[in-house]
Write a structure and sequence with these properties.
The complex is a heterotetramer of chains A (about 120), B (about 575), C (about 200) and D (about 220). Chain A is mainly α. Helices cover about 55% and strands about 0% of the residues of chain A. Chain A has a domain of about 70 residues. The longest helix of chain A is centred in the last third of the chain and has 25 residues. In chain A, about 30% of the residues are buried. Chain B is about 65% helix and about 0% strand. In chain B, about 65% of the residues are buried. By secondary structure, chain B is mostly helical. The two termini of chain B are about 25 Å apart. Chain B has one domain: Cytochrome C Oxidase, Chain A (Up-down Bundle), CATH 1.20.210. Chain D has about 220 residues and is an alpha+beta fold. In chain D, about 35% of the residues lie in helices and about 30% in strands. In chain D, helix 1 runs antiparallel to helix 2. The chains are: A mainly alpha (about 120), B mainly alpha (about 575), C mainly alpha (about 200), D alpha+beta (about 220). Chains B and D meet through helix 3, helix 11, helix 12, helix 13 and helix 14 of B and helix 1, helix 2, strand 7 and strand 9 of D.
């Protein structure tokens, strides 16, 4: 950890990364091919007829794909826990929004006053 | 970096990269907005108490004017004063210097956020001068009304007709303001995490830095859905997407959910930075460590998470599922607990202290007292869903949120200004005028807001231009209450001119502050010259002590600067 | 894959931290939109029929294009680690080409939908009495349109960062920061694609 | 001095009770807070000598007292919830058997009250519509279908302690049972445009015979 020469005591400059191994570099090609494989699977699955099964398969695969991109392409795997917490909070808050709003949107019977 | 050059007007007030200058730009812009909001308040309060009178400086108030005045008063005070003052101004002035660094992590981003903020202000002001007049739909912008006559019932209007309306401009202004605050928030967060002085661990940060950052993150997470919602409302107005149009299966309640999903955490976004400011001031002025630093921090984090689960208490009677309302009621009542803990910790700081009744301390004590006694406790009334059936949308609610927001936002800001003014300008504020300002504000704020409780209990509903149509609201003491409230509000507004005069005069002519550390405080901003040079510190501090180590038994003086060796 | 220990939060470069924070914010914005879409989708079964009118093949190709562009961006990042300017330029230009392909296909798709009469209800509403179904298209255009704006923003960011880095020969970490944003655009599309096109 | 307007509904008293209950507890809490705040403010204006200096945990001695404060407030809070729960269920979640049924439709800027026709059923061709005049029988459960044509309105009956927003696109059924005869105001509590301030209706609560007469008069028109 070197200290910025002109600012004794100023610690923040140390975070300029020391190339090239400040985080891991997975085999990107392998990840990419996996993603393509999953993607092909999604398209095939969407040809099925039961919408519920399609939903679960397709959405499940989307989550896997998103996680792969997050973990390896975006190097989340090597990022500090702080960032995991931040992304987790974002998802948690969306969950709250979904749960809190659900009873007032989905099961509600619509009724329109007939036009005079 | 430390060479301080004299800059011209434009350089200082428009192109500066220095966090203090940008903070000052924000502050001046917000003073401008507040004066508009305050003027609006004066006009409609006068109209309420004396309905047929031509209000001086405005003229006769029609129903349309009245709706426009209350709407824009609310929007300006909530969005520009409260959020701007406590996130942008406090963050810009305090964060870099209190964590002992030279500037923000991204100074240019900081400058751009101010420009976007300025753009939002311009759009907001422009909305008053649209061909159909200002927006008059209530600051919550509930859709079928805020979509205006662009909905199902009316024939198609040209794009220009739709775009050049107050509705579009206000929504754009809000969107830009959120963008600005989000950019600023990212900047503060990164600055706090990455640029702290050597030795300043997270638990040695002053409470206000913590609070601003928690508020920022809370803002960032809760505002997202509303940004999407604002985008959708804009499209509803301008291209007719119909997201909130019941006649196309849309739902006005969706907006209410999105709005309050941000709107309630916003209350805590607004509340947390002043709580941090109060922590600083109370601790310094009672010469004692802040009681339970980690305890306060934990409670704040709990409250921040809880605050995203309580939003629907603004909608108890808005047609939401009553069973869901019960759940929200429980969470609402529970969220009073962490704040009770925080306030008690502040009071515990006072106990056995060596109190100094300086001006900032008076503001701080006033804020704690009013916020707890009349703001917080009436929150219990409204959080209990049953009484909310009656009190919702009455003056009781108005009084309640003025008692929560005014002590925190206004008292907190004034406490901060009286506390840090000498650091920021190198001059002292006039104490006599300051005392006068405090007492007038304190007394007449109560005089204005307390009658509203009684009016609300008598069943006075909100946002009515002329109460004479409702006989039960004209029975005997009620018009008197309205007059008391109005006269107090007018004096309250007038007494702010004392402050304005004091501020401007002291900035130019005030007594020179001879000491760098007049309050004998610990935190780092007091350990540099007043005003701080560009780059804040001549020698960057190395932190050895916590922020609140007053009266350590092993020291000779009763304070221990954080960077003392 | 070599084993490397996680960074602590003190070690993360500030540009990356800022972009991650931005990404968390963007997740909430898009997430809010997606949550609202899902809620409406659960409510109105007729939207499934509307989803059949989307151009699935265009969406599929677009997904492929974005996934590939993500791969190009990580390659650019790998090149940035070795400070290889020629490689950086090559991969980022490829990414920007992908962005243009994406936008081209998107505009083809929009034209297609509009020609088939799946427009926003606005102007025709009173005359034709379009109902609940028209709001599927409101969501369709809003979500894909907002995502399209992000594609443009991401491509611009990559372009300027590339120009800046290759000119000044420093700040190589910026490639990764801009790349992170690009990956976020990709992830959002990964979720939008099945939601809009595939689930009938 | 009376605080609330006269209570005229079966559940209004319970709403008032919740208010007075919370106010009572809060008053006690306020006294405690005022003491806690004023005691140091009035007594601690002297300089500390070095021997009196701060020892860790001093103040309220330790955190336990704050936990006690939080605990007390928690008990009070849950007591409120326990007390108000049944009332909430009664007013909002359940519908007692109806004796009369009307629809209240808000539109800019008046209330349309739709009475069932001679067949006694709502939403049939013989419904009678009255503007801003809401007749109801005393001491009987009246169901109200609250609806809106255009923007959000809110039915607010101060004397019944009743409020419910009227949203376009949905029908919200709530009930009220007036216990006193007379006329009471009904106003709109949600801003609905320029005429919001003028949007009010009158509730005329009559005893059952008078009410029957009124109904027949309505049908004749």
């Amino acid at each position: 950890m070197d200290i910025h020469s002109s600012n004794p005591g100023l610690e923040h400059e140390v975070v300029v990364p020391k190339e090239p191994d400040y985080h891991g570099h997975p085999n990107y090609l392998k990840i990419y091919l996996t993603l393509l494989g999953l993607f092909a699977l999604t398209v095939v699955a969407s040809l099925l007829h039961n919408p519920l099964i399609v939903f679960f398969i397709v959405f499940g695969i989307s989550i896997i794909k998103g996680t792969l991109v997050l973990l390896y392409f975006m190097h989340l795997k090597w990022e500090p826990t702080l960032i995991w917490i931040m992304l987790g909070l974002a998802l948690l808050i969306l969950l709250f929004l979904f749960i809190g709003t659900y009873p007032d949107i989905v099961p509600v019977q619509r009724y329109l006053v007939p036009k005079a | 970096m430390n060479t301080h050059k004299k800059h011209g007007f434009w350089h200082r007030y428009f192109f500066s990269l220095d966090h203090k200058d940008i903070g000052f730009q924000y502050m001046l812009t917000i003073f401008f907005m507040v004066s508009i909001g305050g003027f609006f308040a004066y006009v409609f309060r006068m109209h309420l108490a004396f309905p047929d009178m031509k209000v001086p400086l405005f003229g006769l108030v029609t129903n349309k004017d009245y709706n426009m005045l209350i709407t824009n008063h609310g929007l300006i005070m909530m969005m520009w004063l409260a959020l701007g003052m406590l996130l942008a101004v406090a963050g810009n002035f305090l964060i870099p210097i209190m964590i002992g660094t030279d500037d923000m992590a991204f100074p240019k981003l900081n400058k751009i956020s101010y420009w976007i903020f300025l753009l939002s202000v311009i759009l907001m002001i422009a909305s008053f001068f649209m061909p159909k007049g200002g927006l008059g739909v209530g600051w919550t912008l509930y859709p079928p009304l805020s979509v205006g006559d662009f909905g199902y019932n009316t024939p198609y209007k040209s794009f220009a007709d739709r775009f050049f309306t107050a509705n579009t401009f206000v929504l754009l202004a809000i969107a830009f303001e959120f963008t600005s605050l989000l950019m600023g928030g990212i900047n503060f967060f990164v600055t706090t995490l990455n640029k702290r002085a050597k030795g300043m661990s997270l638990l040695k940060m002053p409470m206000v830095v913590w609070m601003i950052n928690i508020a920022n993150l809370l803002f960032m997470f809760s505002v997202g859905p509303l940004v999407a919602g604002t985008f959708m409302l804009l499209l509803d107005i301008n291209v007719g997407t119909g997201f909130y149009d019941a006649y196309r299966g849309g739902d006005p309640l969706l907006w209410e959910h999105l709005f309050w999903f941000f709107g309630h955490p916003e209350v805590y976004v607004i509340l947390l930075p002043p709580l941090g400011i109060l922590a600083e001031i109370i601790s310094v002025n009672s010469r004692k460590p802040l009681f339970g630093y980690k305890f306060i921090l934990t409670l704040t984090l709990i409250a921040a998470v809880l605050s995203t689960m309580v939003w629907a208490h603004h909608q108890f009677v808005a047609g939401i599922d009553p069973r869901a309302a019960t759940v929200f009621s429980i969470f609402t009542i529970i969220i009073s607990l962490p704040f009770a803990g925080i306030i008690l910790a502040y009071i515990a700081t006072l106990w056995k202290g060596d109190l100094r009744f300086t001006l900032p301390m008076k503001w701080a004590l006033g804020a704690v007292a009013l916020f707890t006694l009349l703001g917080g406790f009436t929150g219990l009334h409204l959080g209990a869903s049953v009484f909310d059936i009656y009190a919702h949308d009455t003056s009781f609610v108005v009084a309640h949120f003025h008692y929560t927001l005014f002590p925190t936002v206004i008292f907190g800001s004034f406490a901060a200004i009286y506390f840090w003014f000498s650091k920021f300008s190198g001059r002292k504020l006039n104490q006599t005028l300051g005392n006068l300002h405090f007492w007038l504000t304190f007394i007449f704020f109560n005089g204005f807001a307390f009658p509203l409780f009684l009016l609300g209990l008598a069943g006075q509903h909100r946002r009515i231009a002329d109460y004479r149509q409702f006989e039960f609201l004209m029975q005997d003491p009620l018009p008197l209450y309205r007059k008391i409230a109005t006269i107090s509000a007018v004096i309250l507004i007038l007494s702010q001119f004392i402050f304005l005069f004091n501020f401007i005069w002291s900035l130019k002519r005030g007594k020179k502050e001879t000491e760098d550390n007049p309050w004998q405080a610990n935190t780092l901003e007091w350990q540099t010259s007043s005003p701080p040079p560009h780059g804040n510190f001549k020698v960057y501090p190395v932190v050895n002590y916590g922020p609140y180590e007053y009266n350590r038994p092993d020291k000779d003086k009763d304070f221990t600067p954080q960077n003392e060796i | 894959m070599e084993k490397i220990k996680k960074l602590t939060w003190r070690e993360i470069p500030q540009a990356r931290l800022a972009v991650w924070t931005l990404i968390a914010g963007e997740f909430v914005i898009f997430g809010g939109l997606i949550v609202m879409y899902i809620l409406n989708r659960l409510k109105y079964e007729s939207w499934g029929e509307m989803a059949q009118h989307t151009n699935v093949w265009a969406g599929t190709i677009n997904t492929f294009v974005l996934l590939t562009s993500s791969y190009f961006v990580v390659k650019a990042h790998e090149a940035a680690v070795h400070k290889n300017k020629a490689q950086i330029k090559k991969w980022i230009w490829l990414t920007i080409v992908c962005a243009f392909m994406f936008l081209g296909i998107k505009s083809y798709e929009y034209t297609h939908e509009i020609m088939h009469g799946f427009t926003l209800p606005g102007k025709h509403l009173v005359a034709e009495g379009l109902g609940v179904e028209s709001r599927y298209w409101s969501f369709y255009y809003t979500m894909t349109g907002l995502h399209g704006l992000h594609v443009i923003a991401g491509a611009l960011a990559l372009f300027f960062v590339m120009r800046n880095v290759t000119k000044t020969d420093k700040n190589y970490q910026r490639i990764e920061a801009a790349g992170l944003y690009w990956h976020m655009v990709d992830i959002i599309w990964i979720f939008l694609f099945p939601l809009i096109y595939l689930i009938h | 001095m009376k605080i609330f307007p006269e209570n005229a509904s079966s559940y209004g008293g319970e709403v008032d009770f919740i208010f007075w209950l919370i106010t009572g507890v809060v008053a006690v809490a306020s006294v405690i807070v005022i003491f806690l705040l004023l005691y140091p403010v009035l007594t601690r204006r002297r300089k500390l000598t070095k021997t009196q200096r701060y020892q860790k945990g001093e103040g309220f001695r330790n955190l336990r007292l704050i936990y006690l404060g939080i605990l007390l407030l928690a008990i009070a809070d849950f007591f409120f919830l326990y007390k108000e729960g049944p009332t909430w269920t009664k007013i909002e979640e359940t519908l007692p058997d109806k004796e009369f049924h009307v629809a209240i439709i808000g539109r800019q800027w008046l209330w349309e009250i739709v009475y069932p026709g001679p067949d006694g059923k709502l939403y049939t061709a013989d419904d009678v519509k009255k503007i801003n005049q809401f007749y109801m029988p005393v001491n009987s459960v009246v169901h109200m279908d609250i609806q809106s044509y255009d923007v959000i309105h809110s039915v607010f009956i101060p004397n019944a302690r009743f409020k419910q927003d009227a949203l376009p696109g949905r029908n919200i059924t709530r009930w009220v049972k007036m216990t006193k005869t007379g006329t009471f105001p009904l106003s709109c509590a949600e801003i609905c445009g320029i005429g919001h301030a003028n949007m009010k209706a009158t509730i005329i609560v009559q005893n059952k015979e008078d009410f029957k007469k009124t109904l027949t008069k309505l049908y004749k028109k």
